[in-house]
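Course exercise 7: structure representation. Students receive a sequence record and must write out the corresponding structure in token form. The form below is the worked example handed out in class, using Molybdopterin molybdenumtransferase (398 residues). Read each field label carefully; the graders check that inputs and outputs are placed in the correct fields and that the protein name is recorded exactly as given.

STUDENT ID: A-19
EXERCISE PROTEIN: Molybdopterin molybdenumtransferase
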Amino acid sequence: MPVADALSQLLDSVKVTTATEQVSIVDALGRVLAEDVCSGVDVPPADNSAMDGYCLRFEDYQPGQSMQVSQRIPAGVAPQPLEPGTLARIFTGAEVPVNADTVIMQEDVAADERGVVINEAPERGQHIRPRGQDIGSGQTILAKGSRIRPQDMGLLASVGVGEVRVYKPLRVAILSTGDELVEPGTPLQKGQIYNSNRYTLIGLLRGLGLDILDLGVVPDDIGATEAAFIRAASEADVVLSSGGVSVGEEDHIKAVLEKLGSLAFWRLAIKPGKPFTLGRIMDIPFAGLPGNPAAVFVTFALLCRPWLLKMQGASDYMPTEVLVPAGFSTRKPGGRQEYLRARLVQSEQGSKVEIYPNQSSGVLFSASWGNGFAVVPPGQRVSEGDLVRFLPYEMILN
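STUDENT ANSWER:
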């Protein structure tokens, strides 16, 4: 199945969570809004000065005339109405008094024995930030489905919102299959490898703000696989596995999936990650990722991430890509869409994309070496200088 068709099927299968909770904005980073947020105030709440200087009525300005200072207005102090024919000393962010409509920068005035002389002719309304310039009362500032970013936390605070209603995090069960897998910190015996996929998936899921049910390693046994799937589907909203989705004698996931639920697809035209599986276990969404470490990284980033974000209620779940000149070439066209572990580099000649020399699905170092994926469609070859699609990690991992 082509990647685009698989992604479309994944997204079409989504049922958005409905469970919500109220959280403080301090704890809202990365959470998905369950309702629109509207401002109850104007920001700024009153006309205020954009500069340190002096405010006056524009019609009181006379070139070369000395004017008296009738009050001093620091930020946070409510001013008195401005006396006609006078200036008020005012500071950045301070509320402009009634009657004043113009601010003069302090660099454009000079003091004399009678007061202050304005040396530069002003324009009416200069250096004043009007009430509601940033946000108007009743304005929707964040829409339902938005994932809250640091700047959004500040935006919420700026209108006095201390709590927001968000969707409860999905609980995602993860498990790895394979008798050869052991945990870091344990000495390796012959035929064993460390279980890197568990930690890759934990990091990726935490980056999305999701809860994790970690079921560890499941032996290559059909009974153990079935028992683990039953537990996962009973205790989680979504189930992810790594490994065991091929057609070898020790790969049992496909058979167990067909017994306990349903299988939508299990082979994709993607490289790396061909044996990617979508289905349901006891009516719980399931995705089976390949066992090779780089393939787990690629398929989660490109397929599972948008699937999970949409399920979590997010409205913006597709990554943004850019076109960048290739700093590499490929030897011949491939039959699958390739996601090459790559990095964007800058030089005096401009930006270009380099790829890691070994693109094997078992080479996880390539993922840490890179900062994104270079996309090569099936049936195409790349020559150096060609424009290629590039997906930066920051667009697909958080």
